[in-house]
Structures are given as structure tokens and as C-alpha cells.
Amino acid sequence: MTTPLTDHHQRIWTLFRVFFGISAVALGGGLAMLPIMKREFVDKRHWLSNDDMIDTVAVMQSLPGIISINMAALIGYRVAGLAGASAAAIAVALPPFITIIVIAAAVQGLLQSPTMGRIFHGVRSAICALILLSAIKLAKQILVSRFAVILAVIGFVVMVFLPINAIWIIVLSALAGYIYQTISRFRQQATPGSAS
Amino acid sequence: MSISLQLYLLFAKISLFTFGGGYAMIPLFQNELVTVNGFLTDAEFANMVALAQMTPGPVGLNAATYVGFNQAGIIGAAAGTLGLMTPSFILAVLAAIFVKVFKDNPTMQAVLSGVRPAVLGLIAAAVIFFADTSVFSAPLRNMWTAGASFGICWPGLLIFAITIAMELSGKIHMLWTLLVAGALGALLLA
């Protein structure tokens, strides 16, 4: 820490480089980024502790939005304040921004061709399978109570059968979760004999 | 309201209600981009998600860039991307500052105990949406619409089954799975 300004700049630049690299390479993004961040910021540079990483993951899971942007802002802020958060978030957004603009400009004509249409139909079938597999994996973690099963079924049925915006499903399920947990807490307090 | 501002606000709204990232965003995007605003058709939207899945970077950012670019060029792409980033960024910085308030907060945990299963239901609904444009030859809802016909697209179903087998083997990178699916689509589909 002999020259703090340089150290600060170096931290910002490193954040930018690491997050740009992760975003440009990692397909799908999200939690898959974690091991790389642990290696770069905890093991290699000691800018964050293991506890910092655990805190970050805990907090991140209750934030709405793009997981990789949440993670970039949280870790960037811890490492180098607001400038660090901004550098990391911009670094995450740039690779997809550039890639998609190049592809979108090229693809618009291509998608009209029948062959491209068939290729994309094949890919859509595959993505249907990928989403199903990820839903099954999530179900094993989430469907641990009758309350959870009921909400999941309602969410599915309403989304598929009724013309209701998904935002309302999120808002109402948040409310349901809050009310349900409040009631169960009251019940536990009312019957102190029951196991808590 | 200019189209860019509209895109910015639209994606900021989607971002604010997205929990779980990735596939969890699909129903929200579909609602707002296809049903409410008519920026894309169902098939275009499904292709856009397919494209986002095949390119690096988070699916949500890819989608915002793609739709923004289609609607209003590079400025639109930037507006969509920034809109999607804004709530995430502000909330994450606040969370980093007030870590103790956000961490293991009982109210937030109670709210999430409801949101998580509902989002799972939305992801399951996204499976049906994708099947409608790939594995089924006509949308599933035709089954209970009088006079409309429903059918299975057999090559699509075969690609669906092959993808499941490839993924469950656990050894193949997803990009290869998608390339195989695309190649099979070109060969088998009419």
C-alpha cells in the first residue's frame, strides 16, 4: 500500500479484466462465475476473504435482477467501492452487447432462409429439454414443503392457462410467502410445547 | 415517449421482478415483449432465446441487447441493456453497503419462500412455451380449444430426447449439445 491511488486503479482494472473475461467465456453466466471469482479475488490476490464470498452469495440470492450484474456490483464494491462496482458491471455487460449486435445484424437476413429456420427449430427443441432438466433440478431443492408445491403448481397453471402477467405471479407469491411465514411463526409461539 | 426510453423502462421493470436469473426470466420477457408490447412474435422470441443461449454472456443481457437493437439500433440496444442493469446495480451496491440488513433478513426470507416455488412454476411454464414452437406441431392450448388440432412434431421430439440423453451423460458441453440439435434440425425437419 505504498501508492494507494495506483493500487486503487490497479484494483479497478483487474476487476474489469476478470469480469470481462468471465462474461466473454462463460455460457449462461450466473453462479457458474463463482469459482473463477474465488480464485482471482480470494486465493490469488487476497482482496476478499472466504467470508466475503459467502456473504456475497447469501445476499445475492435474495436480490432481484441479473445474477451476474448483482455479483459484479457486490464484489466490485467490496474490492474498490463504487468505481469498482461500475467497472465490474460494465465489464459483464460489454461482451454480450458486442456479440449480440454483430450477430443480430447478421442473423436478421439469415433467419429468413428455410435451412436456418430448421436449424433454429432443432435448437429450440434442445432448449425445451434444457429448461425441463433445470426445472427438475430446481424442483428437488425448492419443493420441500406442501406450501412450496402448491405455489409452484399455481404459478405453472396460471402462467400456462390464464392471460395474467408473470409480474403479478411474482408479487402475489411474495405476499403469500410473507403471510404464510408470519402465520407459522404465530402458531409456533402459540404452542410452545411443539418442536420449534 | 421515445422508443429508447420505453425500452429502458421496460427492461428495468423486468429486471426488478426477476428472481433466480436465467430461465426464470423467460416468462417475464415473453409477457412483456410478445404479449404486452408485440415487439416479437412467439417464434421470434423463441429464436431470440435460442440465440442468447448459444452466445456467451447472461441470457437476460443478450435478450435485452437483441430486442433493443431490433427496435431502435445501437441506441436501443444500449437503452435495453442499461435498463436491465440499473435495478440490479443499485440494489447490489445497497446490499454491499448494508450487508447486515440484507443477510438472513427474516422478512426477505419469508418473501423468497413464496417467490422461489412460484418462479419454479414459471420455469415449468417456459417448458410448455418452448414445446409449443418445437416439440409440438401446434400449441398445447389447441387441445382444449374446440375445432383446433394439436399434434406432435416427431423430429422435434427426437431432438428433445437426444438432448436429454446428452445432458444426462454429464460429459458433453452444452454448446456441443446445441450444435448437434441444430444439425439434426437441418437434416430431419421439413
From TrEMBL, chain A:
GO molecular function annotation: chromate transmembrane transporter activity
Cross-referenced Pfam families: Chromate_transp (PF02417)
Subcellular location(s) of the protein: Cell membrane
InterPro entries: CHR_Transporter, Chromate_transpt
Keywords: Cell membrane, Membrane, Transmembrane, Transmembrane helix
Highest taxon, organism lineage: Bacteria
One Gene Ontology cellular component: plasma membrane
UniProt keyword annotation of Transmembrane helix present: yes
KW Nucleus (keyword) present: no
Transmembrane segments: 12-36, 57-77, 83-107, 119-136, 148-180
Membrane topology: Multi-pass membrane protein
Family: Belongs to the chromate ion transporter (CHR) (TC 2.A.51) family.
Record protein name field: Chromate transporter
Protein species of origin: Oligosphaera ethanolica
TrEMBL record, chain B:
InterPro entries per the UniProt record, alphabetical: CHR_Transporter (IPR052518), Chromate_transpt (IPR003370)
Keyword annotations: Cell membrane, Membrane, Transmembrane, Transmembrane helix
Cellular compartment(s): Cell membrane
Its membrane topology: Multi-pass membrane protein
Molecular function per GO: chromate transmembrane transporter activity
Keyword field contains Membrane: yes
Cellular component terms (Gene Ontology): plasma membrane
Short name of one Pfam family: Chromate_transp
Transmembrane regions listed in the UniProt entry: 7-26, 74-99, 111-131, 143-165, 172-189
Domain of life: Bacteria
UniProt keyword annotation of Protein transport present: no
Family: Belongs to the chromate ion transporter (CHR) (TC 2.A.51) family.
Protein name per UniProt: Chromate transporter
Source organism per UniProt: Oligosphaera ethanolica
